[in-house]
Amino acid sequence: MSDGLRTQVGQLAHRSILRTLRQPAQIVPALVFPLFLLAVNSGGLRDATSLPGFPTDSYLTFALAVPFIQGALFSVMNAGTDLARDIETGFLNRLALTPLRGVALLSGLLAGAVVLGLVQAVVYLTVGLIAGAELTTGVAGALVIVALSVSITVAFGSIGLFAALRTGSGEAVQSLFPVFFVFLFISAMALPLNLLQTDWFHTVASINPVTYLLEAFRSLLFEGWEIGTLALGFGIAAVLLGLGMLGASSSLKTRLVRT
Amino acid sequence: MTEVRREGIEVDGLVREFKNGPRAVDGIDLRVEAGEIYGFLGPNGAGKSTTVLMLTTLLPPTAGKARVAGYDIVKEGPRVRASIGAALQEAALDPLLTGREHMRLQTALHGLPKTERAERGQELLERVGLSQAADRKVGGYSGGMKRRLDLALALAHGPSILFLDEPTTGLDIQSRTALWDEVARLAAEEGVTVFLTTQYLEEADALAARVGIIDHGQIVAEGTPAELKAEIGRPTVEAAPREAGELERLAAVLERFGPSAGSSPRSAAARLEGGESQLAEVVRALDSEGIAIERLQLHAPSLDDVFLAKTGRSLEGAEDEVEEIEQEAVGAA
Q1: How many CB pairs under 8 A join A and B?
Q2: CB within 8 Å: A89 and B106
Q3: Which of A10, A15, A151, A233 is the most exposed place for a label (fewest CB within 10 A)?
Q4: Is the pTM of this model over 0.90?
């Protein structure tokens, strides 16, 4: 990476992180809402552990995977809304008048998502462990959970950037949030895949990538080191990031029509 | 700082056509000399901002050519951008960042060495009178402060050409005057070429060495403010009758001396074909008709008169018309 590009990425990352830290309205809901749902689900569905084939006797441990995905979904909205606001206010035009490279803009903007993902992962894991969740893989597993959480947050953030560049509208980006939430509900969120008895739901959940992201977290929480499951989780995050960045780069060319 | 050429702006037959829409810019030609302040005057929707977007390389032209600082706006976009600074129509600032953080970002993205960024930022913040507010978030700045920061950001890399798109719209007179002073100083002391769009006649009159008047995407007049006014040459006489019912008769008398001109609803005005020496005849004519006068004024030609003469409408009226057209377009959509 050249010095100029490094400076551009660094400066835009700095801005993105400052923006994230200066907007409690972005951080607080992304922390509180998933923890609230964790409390509700782990209390209400506790008896599910008695089902034959349920993989752990702690529903809290099983459900702890969900906040990482829910938190990551907030980054679609946060990263996308920030960029859409830059488009709406003309700030993107200001940036376009500098020798800024597109890749620096997108990478810098995702820096805020990295920070948010990091804070979220640490908070969810800490709260979960204090509440009594297991962590079979120990400290090393905790580090991998944080890394996976950040990867997924950045991947979802890139989809937010794509949506912002495509639509140029903060409202349009925010409207994506419930759509993404549907993907979470039609996954193995509440029960493991092998216990989903309804045919159509089992089929949909088994082709839903969110299921495999959840399984990657769960493997570290109560199964142990399952390299294949982890590779699939990180692989899905990488593919989502690749698709998001590809779409965002393509839309950026249209949006930044400077000669 | 980027080394830049001291050349002005050359535009030949520049056109911008939007899909399913009229030609926003319809074949304009203009020349701006290095170090000159050029006022681009016209009502909202006349094509001023579209022209600026093309000249700053943010919008490709549909046809025509333009060179800015000696570089082709289509083929040499990066070189053009290195030579120019721009404060576009809305002060595009991040409300969550401070003034100093804006300066740091802008100087870094323009490639200033790390050791020079803080000094350059401080120098510009002081120059626009924002050093005291430099560490406050921009969200708390007034409109005038935002515009001044916008100007400082446009100057971050020492450009030779500055584009200012309606820089004083919405500002109070004090902020407006402060900005005018800084723009005039930039041109006079630093030789910066300024391309200034405005819908304020007095702004073009006060600042610009030459003025281009644009209407419906075409330049309808160009020259120094004095030349343009001299071209019109005729002053306007405006009179208000003591009795409101006499307004029609008063207007008829004035029309004997020249075509009617824009006036307030309670007065009538006419452009004096024979110049200001006709004023005495106007007074005698009104007296002989027995029309009692409450107020009588002689106006020297203004840029609004120039606009009226060239387009058949006053600048104010043209804005209303554009707003009506925009509302119709929204309604149709």
Answers
A1: 78
A2: no
A3: A10
A4: no
